[in-house]
Amino acid sequence: MISRTAVIGGIEVKITKKSTLKNLYIRINPPKGNVTISAPLHYPDDDISLFVLKKLPEINAVRARMRSQLIQTKREFISGESHYLWGKPYRLDVAVGTKKYSIEKMPNKILFSVPKGASTENKEKVFNEWYRSELKRVMQSLIPIVEKRMNLSANEYRIKNMRTRWGTCNIDKKRIWINLQLAKKPIECLEYVLVHEMVHLLEANHTHKFHALVGKYYPTWKEAKKTLEKMPLDYLK
Question: Where is the YgjP-like metallopeptidase domain positioned along the sequence (predicted)?
Fold first, then answer.
């Protein structure tokens, strides 16, 4: 593997070349729009530069959108904070002094009971496990619907807290990973990401055919993508 940083079209780009890759991939990572390129080991540097220059208007548009997007401050899990679930903000009420942790969702607030002296780190872990259970619950009902619509299924669906991607697909193992943070976004965003990752099982790269297939199986994907982009970004360490 070879990694280096280059300035292309006035943008700093991190380039990583791997012997395991067959194609070139470009990613624009939130929250600041850092650009990364993954390419086959012997992919010519000039071709990488040319590819980035051709994509420059799109790259700049995405970076500008990311930088203008609201970012939540670091959550401390104290009363009065706003926490999202399926696209809706809930006021957090923390009750201190219980023997064990518990979370109860009410119409407009989330009641979080915690032991005395609970650390922010432990509260975050408990909250993330609650988000995981919520995401699993919705995925269990949504995945069969998507699979039936597409006449396609993955071997495995997993959840992981990811910093830069909403989902990933291991094509060889037919394994799909879904970002834990999608429990905070509207359900249509989760459905869009599921369809997007499953289409990779039919078309590996983001070609015109790929986007046509996403549109075939989820016609309102552009609206869902815009919703996902407009929602406040989570605090990133």
Answer: 25-230
